[in-house]
Structure formats: C-alpha cells, structure tokens
Amino acid sequence: MKQSDTYSIGILGSKWGEEEKKRWLLRQEVRRSYKKEVLSKLEPLKEGFDVEQYGELSYDAGKYPLFVVKNRKWDSNKATILVTGGVHGYETSGVQGAIRFLETKAELYGKQFNIIVAPCLSPWGYETINRWNPNAVDPNRSFYEDSPSEEAATLMRYIAALELKLTAHIDLHETTDTDNSEFRPALAARDGSVHNNWNIPDGFYLVGDTENPVDEFQKAVIEVVAQVTHIAPPDEEGKLIGVELSQEGVVNYATKALGLCIGFSGAAFTTTTEVYPDSPLVDDENCILAQVAAITGGLDFILETV
C-alpha cells in the first residue's frame, strides 16, 4: 500500500531511501530570495556591527553564505548572548525577528552584553519555505557531534572556535498550520512511522529544556511577549503540542537528547520561541515584534537578576 493516505512519496510503513529523497527534492522550488530578504538587510548593519561570514552551504541548488552579526564593543567581562533564527528556514518571523532585533535593539543591549546573532541558519530552507535541508534532514534535530546537517555543524564549529561561555541562547521559531498539513506527514513518510495530527496552539509559546528549565526566565519572557501578542492557551488535555505545560505558555523538551539548537550551546539561560503566524489575531509585523519582545524580555531578566 502506498503512503498516499498521508503523503504522496514512499510506501506506508517503510523508511525513505535515496530514491524517495530525490523525488522529494525535485518537488521543492525557490519561492523567495535569501539575498533580497536577508543578506540585503545585513548590509546597512555593517556601519555599526561586525558582519562576519562563518561558513557557506554548497548544495546542487546553489551556494549559500552564512553570516553572524556581532556588536563591536566586545568585552570579555560581559555576558555573551547568542540569538539564532531560521534553523527551520520556513519559519519567517524567526529570521526577520532576529534582523529586526539587530536593527532596533541590539545596539542598546550591546552596551551590556556581547551579542552574536545568526539570523538565518537554513537559507535554502528559507528560499524554498522548508523545514528540512535538501538532504531531507531537519537541522533542528541535528545539533550533536558528527551532525548530518551542514547548517547545524557549521554553526557549532563557529561557536566552539570562539572558546567562550554563553550566558543565554534564544532560538527563534514558529509553529504553523503547515506543520500538520505538510511537515509532519512528510516526517512520518520519511521515517516509516505513524503521523499523529497534533493540535496547533493558537498563540505564542516557549520550549525550555527539561534539564535546565530556568522557569523564572521563561516566565519573564512570556510576560513581556504577552504585551505584544496573545499567549497560546492549553488544549482540552491541558497540553501544548502534546506536551504537559510547565507553566503558562511554556513546555519543556529534552533539548540535548533531541538535537535541538538550544541544546548544543551550554548556555545558562535557553529558550526556543514559537510564534503562530496563521492565527487570525496576528499579522506578519506582530509576529516579528513578538520575536523581538522575547529577546529583550530575556535579556532584561538577566540584567535584573544575574
């Protein structure tokens, strides 16, 4: 029996081989421009920040330079903050929220922190509006040694080479309706597993780390974001995306075991944002502002308490 009940590629119950991955890749097409929507916005930042290329992805679809933006007044006595966006390239406000933070807030916070922002880890995913990279690998399940994801491996090498201790790592994401209509069915087909349709939370929420939940930090972020957009309520089972709430708007994952981006950094304060851009209560600008609020809310908490 074919996988057509849930996805158009593969045989039900069987993992994809190289042929299925090639068929999937042939279906992908460029739908927007990394150069126009991301790289062009980094150019003006060079006046006040160090914009540094930390690697390049080379796929058959093209070469994609990868950049970080750092404040110039680097001081080893300051706490160092990492902000990542576009680990999943299709999650637009993660990328644009990181850039907006640089455009509007980073200079101010750079007086008190060393700031590193990697605004778009997955440029091919950004252009094709995709969760995976061209090899059908999810970068946000690949932050571990000998990673199969160039996107994850390149960032990890860069951060390791800096030889510094991160105080905070804020990773900017979205949960979209296409998670259920496209990406989870594709995942089930690729892995030969069962696809469970999760409820998509209507609103903003955070994913913390079960090993280091830093509850007060998460609470502070939620409180600031709630001034900008609505926080996702729990479903009828009291959960978000199938996970028990640890507090309002927050669930915790085993981030290191799952290979999530915030799991690799070893930062004292970590969180993954999840914006819901398909809500009738928000628009693109509101989603971007929510991401910026999450960053500033976390940094203000650190300034006030650490």
UniProtKB/TrEMBL annotation:
The active site is at E274 (proton donor/acceptor). It comes from the Bacteria. InterPro entries: AstE_AspA_cat, Peptidase_M14. Transmembrane segments: none annotated. The keyword Signal does not apply. Its cofactor is Zn(2+). Keywords: Hydrolase, Metal-binding, Zinc. It holds the Pfam family AstE_AspA_cat. Residues 30-299 form the Peptidase M14 domain. GO terms for molecular function: hydrolase activity, acting on ester bonds; metallocarboxypeptidase activity; zinc ion binding. GO terms for biological process: proteolysis. Belongs to the peptidase M14 family. This is DUF2817 domain-containing protein.
